[in-house]
Amino acid sequence: MHPLDFAIVAGYLVLITFVGVRLSGRVKNAKDFFLAGKSLAWWVIGLSIIGTNIGANSYVGAAGNAFNIGIAQANFEWIGAIPAMIIAALVFIPLYWKAGVYSIPEYLGLRYNPAVRVTAAVITSVVTVFAIGVALWAIALTLQTYLGWPIWVGIIVTGTVVGAYSIAGGLAAVAFTDTLQVCIMFIGGLVIVGLGISETGGFMSFAETLTRDNPNHLQAYLPADHDSFPWPGVLLGLGLVLSPAYWCAGQAILQRTLGAKTQWDASAGMMFAAFGKMFIPLLVVFPGLLALVMKAEIDYPDMALPWVIKNVLPPGISGLMFIAIIAALQSTIDSGVNSVSLMITRDIRHVVLKNPNPDNDLKIGRYLTLILLLLAMCTAPLVSQMGGIFTFIQTILSLFQGPMLALLLLGAFTRRATPTAGLWTLISGVVVSALMLFSGMNMLYVAFCSFIYGMVVLWVLSGFTAAHPNPDLSKLTYSPWRRS
Amino acid sequence: MDFSTLPVAWANYLSIVGFLILAALVWLIPKKVIFTEAPDASRWRDMRLWASVLIIMQLMLYTLFD
Which domain, by its residues, includes A187? Predict the structure, then answer.
């Protein structure tokens, strides 16, 4: 490693740790730890959302997919994010604020029953721990490619650094370090774009080579018979199900909006993040295309971004970009552990133990953060045996996002959905999704079919089961046109 | 239902139609919801405008990469 790169990496680690330690002084109770004491401004929330979102599933993995399929990968940032983010900002965030909840499972628990709350929290927690494992694996892979570190060393070092500031500072430290990390990501990403285009002889030369050698790589959608990303699957599965479920019901994403100063800051933060998302393809898709144009000789597509860093960027700048990737993945990990520790502390513990002492929430939250990190560090090596990083995450999500979205939509927009119907729809929906997935169905179609299944079953079962005990659901349903 | 023979151009058309519908729905949301707890009611804080700008940018992208 060049001494300049080393200095930049060391400086970053010191800065991150310093921010975490500084903010730890503000954490006096569970609300400070999990919701940053309701102090976050819209721009911090927006940048933190982007940091949380750009992780293993959309940095290293997306560059690899772009190497394979081209600009169509950007659908995961555009139609697979922007519409749902607008809906989350204008509809669901105001709804969660009105309900006064700490988490999405808590909202589902109020709207349905505590069993739904626990089930949703357990499912989300398990998936998030896997996602953290994926992020740790991706960091370790990058460290191995760039520094030659063994995988296990990369996993331990990353877990230790993230653990230090997440355990000390809670959501506030997570959000502020995310903000810093996103700024680094954008600087590093833009430098890659500039130097990459210059390296290939200018933009026209880059575009000409790309369109000549890979004519389909500049199409937003792939043919309907494409194996992995057929366009009907992208529109139905990603656009209508996976994306709204992720942006409107994803705990790790929405937790920072629940820690906002005001409801307006919460919604504006999500909308600001949507503007950032618009430009993310420059950071995550372009390197994949660049590796393609430069005819990179790599063993597998996920190596595209590390290859670009190693071969295109000069010393100093490559250190910065290296940090950008590590930062992106770290922000996924820190947000994940913070949100899972919240769900276990409150959504599971508070329901299972009938009268838990809320004064212990902070202590338990911190211990859980540590345990979760250790768990994710153990699961990370398993990821290497499960195919491409991006596809792996999307496959896991497709299992439960459909039924979860059905519960959220019918729960938020109608008074018909009943507690018992909600619970059975959620449980049976995950089983049905798993069966469809194991039968070989494309994950995007699995997501769409399980969503339709969830909507139909929830609607029908609600006609035969007992209604919600509280007839006044005005605080739990979206009704902006009702006179107050 | 067999989707595999549908022409790829339809994807862009459907995306554009979807964005136009979303733009219309955004403006049905009452102003009081948009400005809840906002420090003031200045025009730039109206998130329906933010949403509209985002949608216009998306329309341009899906028209460009067809």
Answer: 3-398
Closest CA to B18 of B60, B53, B65, B59: B59
Which tokens hold the place of A4?
């300049």
Which among A82, A91, A94 is the nearest to B54, CB-wise? A82
Instruction: Tell me whether residues B54 and A86 touch, CB distance under 8 A.
Output: yes
The torsion region of residue A101 among left (phi > 0), alpha (psi -120 to 50) and beta comes to beta
Mutate: best of B13, B36, B46, B52, partner A, most A CBs <10 A: B36
Least confident range of A199-203, A274-278, A296-300, A383-387: A383-387
Nearest CA in chain B to A80: B15
Q: Per the domain annotation, does A481 fall within a domain?
A: no
Decide if B48 and A262 are in contact by the 8 Å CB cutoff: no
The answer to whether residue A466 is domain-embedded is: no
> So what's the ipTM on this one?
0.95
Chain A closest-CA separation from residue B54 CA (Å): 7
Q: How confident is the model over A418-430, as pLDDT tens digits?
A: 999 999 999 999 8
